[in-house]
Design goal:
233 residues; alpha/beta; 3-stranded mixed sheet; 9 strands
Length: 233
Protein backbone atom coordinates (compact mmCIF):
# COMPACT_ATOMS: atom_id res chain seq x y z
CA UNK A 1 0.00 0.00 0.00
CA UNK A 2 1.15 3.50 -0.79
CA UNK A 3 0.83 6.12 1.95
CA UNK A 4 0.82 9.90 1.56
CA UNK A 5 0.96 12.24 4.56
CA UNK A 6 0.90 16.03 4.74
CA UNK A 7 3.75 16.21 7.27
CA UNK A 8 3.78 19.99 7.15
CA UNK A 9 0.17 20.20 8.34
CA UNK A 10 0.71 17.48 10.94
CA UNK A 11 3.81 19.15 12.39
CA UNK A 12 2.16 22.57 12.41
CA UNK A 13 -0.81 21.28 14.40
CA UNK A 14 1.43 19.43 16.85
CA UNK A 15 3.44 22.62 17.33
CA UNK A 16 0.25 24.61 17.91
CA UNK A 17 -0.73 22.12 20.63
CA UNK A 18 2.61 22.57 22.38
CA UNK A 19 2.51 26.36 22.12
CA UNK A 20 -1.05 26.54 23.48
CA UNK A 21 -0.23 24.21 26.38
CA UNK A 22 2.98 25.96 27.39
CA UNK A 23 1.52 29.41 26.86
CA UNK A 24 -1.54 28.59 28.94
CA UNK A 25 0.52 27.21 31.81
CA UNK A 26 2.79 30.26 31.75
CA UNK A 27 -0.21 32.59 31.96
CA UNK A 28 -1.57 30.60 34.91
CA UNK A 29 1.79 30.94 36.62
CA UNK A 30 1.83 34.66 35.93
CA UNK A 31 -1.66 35.02 37.46
CA UNK A 32 -0.35 33.46 40.66
CA UNK A 33 2.86 35.51 40.78
CA UNK A 34 1.35 38.93 40.01
CA UNK A 35 -0.37 39.49 43.41
CA UNK A 36 2.91 38.82 45.21
CA UNK A 37 5.27 40.93 43.12
CA UNK A 38 3.14 43.50 41.28
CA UNK A 39 0.13 44.27 43.52
CA UNK A 40 -1.04 47.16 41.36
CA UNK A 41 -1.83 44.65 38.58
CA UNK A 42 -4.15 42.59 40.77
CA UNK A 43 -7.17 43.69 38.75
CA UNK A 44 -5.77 41.82 35.73
CA UNK A 45 -5.21 38.58 37.59
CA UNK A 46 -8.62 37.07 36.86
CA UNK A 47 -8.39 37.87 33.15
CA UNK A 48 -4.91 36.35 32.87
CA UNK A 49 -6.05 33.26 34.78
CA UNK A 50 -9.02 32.74 32.46
CA UNK A 51 -6.82 33.17 29.38
CA UNK A 52 -4.27 30.76 30.82
CA UNK A 53 -6.88 28.11 31.62
CA UNK A 54 -8.40 28.46 28.15
CA UNK A 55 -5.00 28.18 26.48
CA UNK A 56 -4.08 25.12 28.52
CA UNK A 57 -7.37 23.39 27.70
CA UNK A 58 -7.01 24.16 24.00
CA UNK A 59 -3.49 22.79 24.13
CA UNK A 60 -4.64 19.57 25.78
CA UNK A 61 -7.44 19.17 23.23
CA UNK A 62 -5.03 19.63 20.32
CA UNK A 63 -2.44 17.36 21.92
CA UNK A 64 -5.02 14.59 22.34
CA UNK A 65 -5.69 14.76 18.62
CA UNK A 66 -2.31 15.61 17.10
CA UNK A 67 0.38 14.53 19.56
CA UNK A 68 -0.88 11.58 21.59
CA UNK A 69 0.31 8.21 20.34
CA UNK A 70 -0.79 6.39 18.34
CA UNK A 71 -1.90 9.16 16.05
CA UNK A 72 -4.77 8.45 13.62
CA UNK A 73 -2.54 8.00 10.58
CA UNK A 74 -0.36 5.52 12.47
CA UNK A 75 -3.36 3.37 13.43
CA UNK A 76 -4.71 3.36 9.88
CA UNK A 77 -1.32 2.60 8.33
CA UNK A 78 -0.98 -0.42 10.61
CA UNK A 79 -4.51 -1.65 9.88
CA UNK A 80 -4.03 -1.46 6.11
CA UNK A 81 -0.37 -2.50 5.88
CA UNK A 82 -1.21 -5.84 4.21
CA UNK A 83 -2.93 -4.15 1.26
CA UNK A 84 -1.05 -4.03 -2.04
CA UNK A 85 -0.11 -0.92 -4.02
CA UNK A 86 -3.54 -0.77 -5.66
CA UNK A 87 -4.61 0.85 -2.38
CA UNK A 88 -3.43 4.38 -1.63
CA UNK A 89 -3.97 6.04 1.73
CA UNK A 90 -3.99 9.84 1.98
CA UNK A 91 -3.69 11.55 5.36
CA UNK A 92 -4.86 15.14 5.88
CA UNK A 93 -5.69 16.11 2.28
CA UNK A 94 -6.54 19.78 2.16
CA UNK A 95 -10.05 21.11 1.50
CA UNK A 96 -11.79 17.73 1.86
CA UNK A 97 -14.48 16.93 4.47
CA UNK A 98 -12.37 14.09 5.89
CA UNK A 99 -8.79 13.83 7.13
CA UNK A 100 -8.12 10.34 5.79
CA UNK A 101 -9.06 8.87 2.40
CA UNK A 102 -8.35 5.41 1.04
CA UNK A 103 -8.31 5.07 -2.74
CA UNK A 104 -9.30 1.49 -3.54
CA UNK A 105 -9.59 -0.27 -6.92
CA UNK A 106 -13.38 0.26 -6.77
CA UNK A 107 -13.78 3.71 -5.21
CA UNK A 108 -13.03 6.01 -2.28
CA UNK A 109 -13.31 5.30 1.43
CA UNK A 110 -13.47 8.39 3.66
CA UNK A 111 -12.41 7.71 7.24
CA UNK A 112 -13.20 9.43 10.54
CA UNK A 113 -10.90 8.25 13.34
CA UNK A 114 -11.93 8.28 17.01
CA UNK A 115 -9.36 7.46 19.69
CA UNK A 116 -11.50 7.36 22.83
CA UNK A 117 -12.09 4.80 25.52
CA UNK A 118 -15.70 4.16 26.56
CA UNK A 119 -18.97 2.62 25.48
CA UNK A 120 -20.76 3.73 22.31
CA UNK A 121 -23.96 2.28 20.90
CA UNK A 122 -26.53 2.76 18.18
CA UNK A 123 -29.86 1.11 18.90
CA UNK A 124 -33.25 1.79 17.34
CA UNK A 125 -31.76 4.57 15.26
CA UNK A 126 -30.28 6.44 18.23
CA UNK A 127 -26.58 7.07 18.82
CA UNK A 128 -25.50 7.14 22.45
CA UNK A 129 -22.29 7.50 24.42
CA UNK A 130 -22.08 6.25 28.00
CA UNK A 131 -20.99 9.27 30.04
CA UNK A 132 -18.70 8.15 32.86
CA UNK A 133 -17.30 10.48 35.52
CA UNK A 134 -13.89 10.38 33.88
CA UNK A 135 -15.30 11.17 30.44
CA UNK A 136 -17.39 14.01 31.88
CA UNK A 137 -14.30 15.55 33.49
CA UNK A 138 -12.33 15.27 30.24
CA UNK A 139 -15.22 16.16 27.93
CA UNK A 140 -14.10 19.70 27.24
CA UNK A 141 -10.59 18.60 26.17
CA UNK A 142 -11.54 15.50 24.17
CA UNK A 143 -13.05 15.10 20.73
CA UNK A 144 -16.80 14.77 20.17
CA UNK A 145 -18.26 11.65 18.58
CA UNK A 146 -21.00 12.17 15.99
CA UNK A 147 -23.61 9.63 14.96
CA UNK A 148 -21.74 7.55 12.32
CA UNK A 149 -24.81 7.33 10.08
CA UNK A 150 -25.34 11.08 9.95
CA UNK A 151 -21.62 11.73 9.65
CA UNK A 152 -21.26 9.20 6.84
CA UNK A 153 -24.10 10.75 4.85
CA UNK A 154 -22.61 14.23 5.25
CA UNK A 155 -19.09 13.13 4.34
CA UNK A 156 -20.21 11.22 1.25
CA UNK A 157 -22.37 14.12 0.03
CA UNK A 158 -19.61 16.68 0.55
CA UNK A 159 -16.93 14.51 -1.01
CA UNK A 160 -19.14 13.91 -4.06
CA UNK A 161 -19.66 17.67 -4.34
CA UNK A 162 -15.91 18.29 -4.26
CA UNK A 163 -15.30 15.67 -6.93
CA UNK A 164 -18.01 17.15 -9.11
CA UNK A 165 -16.48 20.61 -8.83
CA UNK A 166 -13.09 19.21 -9.76
CA UNK A 167 -14.04 16.81 -12.54
CA UNK A 168 -17.62 17.69 -13.50
CA UNK A 169 -20.04 14.93 -14.49
CA UNK A 170 -17.41 12.99 -16.43
CA UNK A 171 -16.08 11.25 -13.32
CA UNK A 172 -18.55 9.15 -11.33
CA UNK A 173 -16.89 7.43 -8.37
CA UNK A 174 -18.43 5.24 -5.65
CA UNK A 175 -17.79 6.84 -2.24
CA UNK A 176 -18.16 5.25 1.17
CA UNK A 177 -17.54 6.72 4.64
CA UNK A 178 -16.70 4.97 7.88
CA UNK A 179 -16.06 5.93 11.51
CA UNK A 180 -13.18 3.92 13.00
CA UNK A 181 -12.66 3.52 16.75
CA UNK A 182 -8.97 2.91 17.49
CA UNK A 183 -8.75 2.81 21.31
CA UNK A 184 -8.17 -0.78 22.52
CA UNK A 185 -10.58 -0.34 25.42
CA UNK A 186 -13.55 0.97 23.44
CA UNK A 187 -16.85 -0.94 23.48
CA UNK A 188 -19.04 -0.61 20.40
CA UNK A 189 -22.59 -1.95 20.12
CA UNK A 190 -24.39 -1.51 16.81
CA UNK A 191 -27.93 -2.60 15.97
CA UNK A 192 -27.12 -3.76 12.45
CA UNK A 193 -24.37 -4.41 9.93
CA UNK A 194 -25.36 -1.33 7.95
CA UNK A 195 -24.08 1.15 10.55
CA UNK A 196 -20.89 2.69 9.07
CA UNK A 197 -18.69 2.23 12.15
CA UNK A 198 -16.24 -0.37 13.40
CA UNK A 199 -13.31 -1.01 15.70
CA UNK A 200 -9.85 -0.83 14.22
CA UNK A 201 -9.39 -4.61 14.23
CA UNK A 202 -12.40 -4.99 11.91
CA UNK A 203 -11.42 -2.20 9.54
CA UNK A 204 -9.93 -4.32 6.76
CA UNK A 205 -13.19 -6.25 6.38
CA UNK A 206 -15.11 -2.96 6.13
CA UNK A 207 -12.75 -1.28 3.68
CA UNK A 208 -14.35 -2.59 0.51
CA UNK A 209 -16.22 -0.03 -1.60
CA UNK A 210 -19.09 -1.71 -3.50
CA UNK A 211 -18.94 -1.33 -7.25
CA UNK A 212 -17.07 -2.34 -10.40
CA UNK A 213 -13.35 -1.83 -10.73
CA UNK A 214 -12.46 1.73 -11.67
CA UNK A 215 -11.14 2.37 -15.16
CA UNK A 216 -7.36 2.97 -15.08
CA UNK A 217 -7.69 6.58 -16.25
CA UNK A 218 -10.28 7.32 -13.52
CA UNK A 219 -8.13 5.68 -10.86
CA UNK A 220 -5.08 7.66 -11.99
CA UNK A 221 -6.98 10.97 -12.03
CA UNK A 222 -8.25 10.39 -8.50
CA UNK A 223 -4.80 9.43 -7.29
CA UNK A 224 -3.19 12.52 -8.82
CA UNK A 225 -5.92 14.78 -7.37
CA UNK A 226 -5.62 13.35 -3.84
CA UNK A 227 -1.84 13.41 -3.97
CA UNK A 228 -1.90 17.05 -5.01
CA UNK A 229 -4.13 17.91 -2.03
CA UNK A 230 -2.04 15.89 0.42
CA UNK A 231 1.44 16.78 -0.81
CA UNK A 232 1.22 20.46 -1.83
CA UNK A 233 4.28 21.92 -3.49
Amino acid sequence: MKVFVDRQKLNARAQAANIASIGGLMLLLVSVVIPQFVPKWNSYTSIIMVLGAAGAMIGIYLANRWVRKPRPEESLDKAFKAFDDNYRLYHYPGSLPCEHVLLTPTGLLALEVVNLNGYFSRRNGRWKEAMTVGRALRYIVEERVSDPVILSQAMVAELNNRLKKEFGDQLIVPVKALTVFTHPGVELELDGPGVPACKIDKLRKQANVPGARLAPEVYDKLGAYLERLTMPA
